[in-house]
Specification:
The protein has 3 helices and 10 strands. By secondary structure, it is mainly β.
Length: 254
């Protein structure tokens, strides 16, 4: 069955990880969620409840890995292009930088006609940030002179590895379950520069790490011209729980 044109699908394969990041706010929170774990999920707008049955569904809706019979392997890597525009006392300033965005791999096997098993690993969030802000003197005689500079550099993000299965108890329903480890590290470096009194210059570094068990559950109801799905991802300290529901409509025949 065909859903997207060949050209669209080709573009998604060539550029699987180019995204706009959310900047300062997300760097100080749980990071920017990677919108698609590979080219397929990115092409569906990061949909979690439905997909094309590729092996990486073990990390979104494990019931989906039953859709395509046999053995399959998927890998994806791509950059994240981050853009930010800030207005401070020097005016409006734009900055951009490149970080690791999409990074994933997964494999799936089908030991029986009713059972599929799979395992995968993927990058979930990106906390990368590079920001610099200036403060100018607003009083004469040095009006306009930069007197303070504040910089923030953030690196890191969250990953997840999991294994699980998809079982088809009846012809109209697939159920899936997977579990594994959610892990990662984020490091912050904050610099304050006093242009008039360098003795006040300050560098502060901090960060966090996470290593927690996580699990996913899913249900897929395949119909003749559509498929319905529901999925759940467990929360952890730096990752919110997610529940999703959706449907995909097939158009055309193979």
């Amino acid at each position: 069955m065909k859903i997207f044109s060949n050209m669209t699908f080709l573009l998604l394969l060539l550029f699987p990880g180019i995204v706009l990041a959310f900047g300062y706010a997300d760097a100080h929170g749980n990071g920017s969620p990677i919108p698609g774990l590979n080219a397929v999920s990115l092409g569906l707008g990061g949909a979690r409840a439905i997909g094309f049955g590729d092996a990486l569904s073990i990390l979104t809706n494990p019931a989906e890995i039953y859709r395509i019979p046999g053995t399959s392997l998927t890998m994806s890597i791509g950059p994240a292009v981050l853009i930010e525009t800030v207005e401070d006392s020097t005016g409006r300033n734009s900055s951009n930088w490149i970080a690791l965005g999409n990074l994933s791999a997964a494999v799936k096997f089908q030991p029986s006609s009713r059972l599929a098993i799979g395992a995968g690993i993927a990058r979930l969030t990106d906390s990368s940030y590079e920001g610099m802000y200036h403060v100018r003197d607003e009083t004469p005689p040095d009006y306009g002179e930069i007197i303070e500079t504040m910089e923030l550099s953030v690196t890191g993000g969250l990953y997840e590895s999991a294994a699980g299965f998809s079982w088809r108890p009846v012809t109209w329903m697939n159920i899936g379950l997977s579990g594994g480890l959610r892990f990662g590290q984020v490091d912050y470096d904050s610099t304050y520069l006093d242009r008039r009194d360098p003795e006040n210059d300050t560098l502060v570094s901090w960060g966090w790490t996470e290593n927690e068990f996580c699990w996913h559950a899913g249900l897929v109801i395949p119909l003749s011209l559509t498929s319905l799905g529901v999925s759940w991802a467990s929360p952890s300290e730096h990752y919110d729980g997610r529940i999703a529901a959706g449907a995909i409509l097939y158009t055309g025949e193979l």
